[in-house]
Amino acid sequence: MHVPMVPPGSVRADGSGAAESTDRVVICNPVSGSEDHLEQVHGLAADGGWKLRVTEAEGDAREYAREAAESGTELVAAAGGDGTVNEVVDGFVDSGVEDWPTLLIVPAGTGNNTASNLGIESIGEAFSLAESGRRRRLDLGRANDRAFLNSCIGGLTAEASLETDSESKRRFGVLAYVLKTIETATNYDGAPLRVTLENADVATSVVWEGDVALAFIGNCRRFGRRQAQAHAEDGLLEVTLVENASMPSMVGATALDHLFDLDADGIVRHRVPRVTIESLHDEPITYSLDGEVLAAEELDLETLPGAISVVVGDDYESNPDAEGAGL
After folding, report:
1. Distance CA 316, CA 217 (A)
2. Residue pair 42/52 in contact by the 8 Å Cβ criterion
3. Quick check: is 161 in a domain?
4. Domain interval for residue 235
5. In a domain, 181, yes or no
6. What is the separation of C-alpha 62 from the centre of its chain, rounded to a whole number of angstroms?
């Protein structure tokens, strides 16, 4: 295991201890991904005058982000995977302050889906964008009392994510999730759910019931489309439900993407501001919020339009559905 050269806790990027607030804080998870990114983050943070905070345990990123928001920090970087980003966003929410720091995502984890959907592909690019990148106000998703920036996933893939161990993620990266999903699919019976999709006009709301293999609720991410980035500035959640009866033809990841692209039978899609998902067998359903696990019998989801300022990359489309976007 790689031993970080920077001690955990709160330090300046030049290595000296520091307790005072600063305009720039980078919160780094040293054991996310392949665990070899801390030295690079440390060097780039030092060059940019950042205060570096290195996490030791689950919840540290949330606490450091809360403290940064309360102290009026202008820019906070989350260096890690999707789970680290989720903790940082939760910390902003927990702070209770009205004006949150701007968020910069530094892709340094096994899953960097959120960063990719925002057009950020490398650690070096992220720090460069801190100087020159665009800042956009993006929607934020809320699931019960938890926030999510990218997506909320229920069912098969959430179960597989929960069962994927750290060693597999370190050795195989994203492939570890794919392999575990395929393995889990052979024995997954689906989840009986009632899904209420609420439009702004309550009279047009939709109630759907059935056995679901996968439930995807995307904010920055959409599922099974050639354009993976969702419209994160429209005040809507992208909901995709995959009926359990469709699973035999979707064991392979390639088949799954192909089926989604065709809008085949067994795929339900809606774009709405609010969703309620209820378990019909009185047992909690496992969800993954940006990689963080949540279990609930009933999940109330909504979008918070323009809630968070985020640094985005050059390839980020403010409206990915516009004619010519993504070309």
Report:
1. 20
2. yes
3. yes
4. 151-306
5. yes
6. 14
